[in-house]
Design a protein that fits this description.
With about 400 residues, the protein is an alpha/beta fold. About 40% of the residues lie in helices and about 10% in strands. The protein is built from 16 helices and eleven strands. Strand 10 and strand 11 (about 315-320) form a beta hairpin.
Length: about 400
């Protein structure tokens, strides 16, 4: 029987970097507090404990040094770890987690990979010191929650962006099996109401750049026709390039690379369609599981699509989903403070409509006014050729295990 929503006495959050409050290539305390989860908790009046990571974050956060010329650097130093290692978190989301990780991956005492390190930071304290090592789902069950927020599956699709290879996508059959198993764990072992979000179109993020735009820019800069550059680079209109692909294009122009852009740097037009269809298929699974469980479904896919199509107008300024357009942070994948505020409102609006709560929306204008990445606060106009820096996202991809 479906569980009525609105009881936030004991609430937990499950998911990946998007629910952890990851921003600008880092899990960092001063950014985490602007994530959608603490915003929802604040508006609804319940407590949340996050895995707050000391500066410069894990991995070290990206820093916008200058808008013109565009200069983005990685913060120096190494984090000392959790600000609150003796406190059990209720935001259990682990950056880089895929569906299977939420159900089964536990922290280890001696992490070897970036993904193991970030898992330990979130899930390992204080548990490992007490001889406990649980997955997100197991922690959730043990908490005996009244409400569970679940936003999962984005990383199962995002691997295609970072690897340039749709073959890295989780099959629909495996996604169905894993999501069903996760939902069974949460619905049969708790009496919580579930609030579940679907997956955005991972091809429509500024981490990915339209080949048509890149070809036009290089044509204007070099004087060569687009047709010539298309053959030289091995890309066509309709393709999307990730930061690795953009770096390869620059190397070809500089004469330091003599081969076309590698498969790892580009999604062809046909591959883009494959990825988008796979996200649609994943969301069909999520919708069916939400309906079966009597859960509240949050349409994040529609939110991201709306921002992409129409932008976001706040205080008379219209931001965009482009790089440094106001919605996405410096890594081109995760939202800004303003973006997360919009995500929070999508959750709040779905809950108000779904089970009659009367939770006030986040005041997005107030958030934007103090958001350092909201364009009017940048102090200069962003160049149309601004792109996500390849060196910075390599660190993010290594830590999050993308393309694994």
């Amino acid at each position: 029987m479906p569980i009525a929503g609105g009881n936030f006495t004991t609430t937990v959050f499950l998911g990946d970097s998007l629910t952890a409050g990851y921003q600008s290539s880092s899990l960092l305390d001063t950014a985490e507090v602007h994530g959608w989860a603490p915003l929802v908790a604040g508006q609804a009046g319940f407590g949340i404990t996050q895995a707050l990571i000391a500066a410069p974050g894990a991995p070290s956060t990206l820093v916008l040094k200058s808008v013109s010329p565009l200069t983005i650097a990685t913060a120096s130093g190494t984090t000392t770890g959790r600000d609150n290692p003796s406190t059990q978190v209720t935001d259990l989301a682990v950056p880089g987690a895929e569906l299977n990780d939420i159900l089964n991956t536990v922290p280890v005492a001696s992490p070897a990979t970036g993904q193991e390190q970030i898992t330990q930071l979130v899930l390992g304290f204080p548990g490992l010191g007490l001889g406990q090592a649980y997955s997100q789902a197991t922690y959730a069950v043990k908490a005996n929650p009244t409400t569970i927020f679940l936003w999962a599956g984005s990383n199962n699709a995002l691997d295609a962006d970072t690897s340039g290879m749709p073959s890295s996508l989780t099959s629909v059959a495996d996604f169905t099996t894993q999501y069903t198993a996760l939902m069974k764990e949460l619905t049969t072992k708790t009496t919580a109401h579930l609030v579940i979000a679907n997956i955005p179109d991972v091809t429509q993020v500024p981490y990915m750049q339209a080949a048509a735009t890149i070809l036009a820019e290089y044509s204007q800069g070099t004087g060569y026709p687009v047709s010539v550059l298309s053959g030289l680079f091995g890309i066509s209109a309709g393709d999307l390039l990730n930061p690795e692909g953009l770096a390869e294009v620059a190397a070809i122009v500089a004469g330091t690379q003599t081969t076309p852009v590698s498969d790892a740097g580009v999604l062809t037009a046909a591959e883009v369609i494959t990825v988008q269809q796979r996200v649609t298929d994943y969301n069909t699974v999520i919708a069916a599981q939400a309906k079966s469980a009597g859960a509240t479904l949050v349409d994040i896919h529609a939110l991201f699509a709306s921002v992409g199509a129409s932008g976001l107008t706040i205080g008379g300024y219209t931001g965009t989903s482009g790089f440094l357009g106001g919605f996405f942070s410096l890594d081109g994948i995760h939202p800004t403070n303003t973006g997360y505020a919009l995500v929070a409102n999508a959750f709040i609006d779905a809950m108000n409509a779904g089970f009659g709560s009367k939770i006030a929306d986040v005041d997005v204008a107030t958030v934007a006014a103090s958001d350092p990445l909201w364009p009017p606060n940048l102090g200069a106009t962003v160049s149309a050729s601004a792109r996500v820096p390849v060196g910075a996202v390599r660190g993010m991809n290594a830590v999050l295990g993308h393309g694994r």
